[in-house]
Design goal:
This protein is an alpha+beta fold and 88 residues long. It has one domain: 2-Layer Sandwich (Arylsulfatase, C-terminal domain). It has one helix and six strands. The strands form two sheets. The protein has a four-stranded antiparallel β-sheet, with helices on one face. A two-stranded antiparallel sheet has the order 2-3. The longest helix is centred in the last third of the chain and has 13 residues, at 75-87. The protein is globular and about 25 Å long. The two termini are 13 Å apart.
């Protein structure tokens, strides 16, 4: 199961059991930055508006200290999670 999370500092509502959004609009915090994350298996991809995308293996790195975005071995994971995140 994919978990897509869109975070806002304002209120959010649960849609289905795995997707969050904010009233059909793109979620924004007070400064207008969009924050979206997807988790699939051990992997978590974090996308922040106007910031570097991050990828973590939560089984190996539960505290999210080791960003795997630049790891060539993760290119297929990045492609898959990015496509799924942009769908949701």
């Amino acid at each position: 199961m994919d978990v897509v999370f869109a975070h806002s500092l304002t209120a959010t509502q649960l849609i289905g059991q795995t997707r969050l959004s904010q009233g059909g609009r793109r979620p924004k915090n007070e400064v207008g930055a969009i924050q979206r994350m997807i988790s699939r298996g051990p992997w978590k991809l974090c996308h922040y508006d106007q910031m570097r995308v991050q990828l973590f293996n939560l089984e190996e790195d539960p505290l999210e200290h080791n960003d795997r975005w630049d790891d060539p071995a993760c290119s297929d994971i990045i492609t898959d999670l990015t496509a799924r995140l942009l769908e949701g």
